[in-house]
Write a structure and sequence with these properties.
Helix content is 35%, strand content 19%. The chain is of the alpha+beta class. It has 2 domains: 52 residues, no CATH class; 263 residues, Aminopeptidase, CATH 3.40.630.190.
């Protein structure tokens, strides 16, 4: 019998798959088949245990046991169930055993990346919940503090709404993203108000993320509703914060309906609480400190607290009213920033002491919401302006003393452009 009709047996090892024997070219290399070529071979029934014992080979290796392909796989070993077992008979189209299907591999173990993603989502949700709880606690604490402020003073502006003779007849300018709060420094002696020594409009511009401060000079000669032409600071003595806000609104055509008033003694307490203010003194200011309150300072950088810081904001002999207003804006700007950076315990001590001494018409909830929505503006750029602006007024002496007579149309246009970027409606 020719050698080609014989099939030699080879030894099998448990740890390696059987190798396929090379076949010689020619018609004698084909194995004779007793199957009718016109009838396709019938595949036996599948095993009841669910195992696939048939390979994709075109031949059947008779007399040889089937081999588990996982025992020869190059993949890491793992536990597998009976459904995962696959066999082949050594006659595959190549020497590499077929890899198990993805569905079979994924049936017995979880996907580690998916598990890690779920864990990260759980952590993120917990962090968000903790932040929301802390913000809620902070909001409640601030609302309780703001509720201690004095809200018993006159704030009815409607009775003072009037059109001044010299002011432009434009509509009152306003913007929901721009909040104007008039800061009033009260000059109270013996418990009575003698006028507003400081009028500073604090503008929170959430549209451009800026904090703007506008000083209104106290000697500005304007029309006060019901009292004729007077100095601007006299409006507080005549009608309190409501008349002061409406006088500014009438003459400069901007919306002012929120205020915060503080006595000078309380103002000094706030400055002490934040560790004082850092200023640069020149020779003229040093001399003024010595002659005014008997304090000796050297020109250069100085840290002022208490009475010295308050006196710094009220000096009129150096730089007249313009220099005075500029120093006030400098001090208020530093005070706002330093209070925002105080720790919660220290801030609670400071606010608990000074809040009952401050006047406002903002509710506690409004102030809390204002803090949360406007806090980023405190850390951004600060801009300043003063009204009347330079070269837009004339000096005069009238029955109430030396005054500044402003060009109201020009100053209203400058102020509206600074606060809203709108200028006059005719521009």
């Amino acid at each position: 019998m020719p050698n080609s009709s014989k099939r030699t047996s080879r030894s099998r090892y448990a740890d390696e798959p059987p190798k396929r024997k090379k076949r010689q070219a020619g018609p004698t290399s084909r194995r004779p088949s007793s199957v009718n070529p016109e009838t396709p071979p019938r595949r036996p029934e599948a095993r009841s245990d669910g195992r696939d014992i048939y390979s994709h080979s075109q031949h059947t290796h008779r007399g040889e046991p089937m081999v588990d392909i996982y025992s020869h796989s190059t993949q890491p070993k793992r536990r597998r169930s009976r459904e995962d077992v696959r066999y082949y008979d050594g006659y595959t189209t190549n020497d590499t055993p077929p890899r198990p299907a993805k569905a079979a591999r994924g049936a017995t173990r979880r996907n580690p990346p998916a598990r890690r993603r779920r864990k990260k989502r759980h952590i993120a949700r917990r962090v968000v919940c903790v932040i929301l709880v802390l913000l809620l606690i902070l909001a409640v604490w601030m609302t309780v503090l703001f509720a201690q402020m004095d809200r018993t003073h006159n704030t009815d502006q409607s009775q003072y709404a009037a059109q001044p003779q010299n002011a432009p007849t434009w509509d009152i300018e306003s913007n929901p993203l721009v909040t104007n709060i008039l800061l009033i420094g009260m000059d109270q002696r013996d418990g009575e108000s003698h006028g507003s020594d400081t009028m500073l409009l604090l503008t929170i511009d959430r549209l451009h993320l800026k904090l703007k401060m506008t000083s209104f000079l106290r000697d500005t000669y304007v029309e006060i509703p019901g009292h004729g032409m007077q100095k601007l600071n006299a409006s507080f003595a005549y009608g309190g914060p409501a008349l002061t806000m409406q006088t500014i609104e009438n003459n400069y055509r901007i919306k002012v309906d929120k205020y915060l008033a503080v006595d000078f003694n309380t103002f000094a307490q706030l400055i002490n609480a934040v560790g004082g203010i850092d200023v640069t003194l020149d020779e003229a200011l040093c001399n003024e400190f010595y002659t005014g309150i008997g304090r000796e300072y050297s020109p250069g950088e100085q840290n002022l607290t208490g009475v010295a810081a308050l006196y710094y904001t009220r000096i009129r002999n150096v730089g007249n009213d313009y220099g005075r207003a500029e120093r006030q804006r400098e001090v208020v700007g530093q005070l706002v920033k330093k209070m925002a950076l105080l720790g919660p315990i220290k801030l609670n001590e400071v606010l608990s002491e000074v809040m009952p001494q401050m006047w406002t018409n903002l509710s506690a909830l409004e102030m809390t919401g204002l803090v949360f929505t406007s806090f980023p503006c405190v850390l951004f750029e600060q801009q300043s302006q003063q009204i009347p602006a330079e070269n837009t007024y004339t000096s005069a002496t009238v029955d109430v003393g030396a005054v500044l007579v402003p060009d109201l149309t020009q100053n209203a246009q400058i102020l509206r452009d600074f606060l809203y970027g709108s200028g006059s409606p005719d521009a």
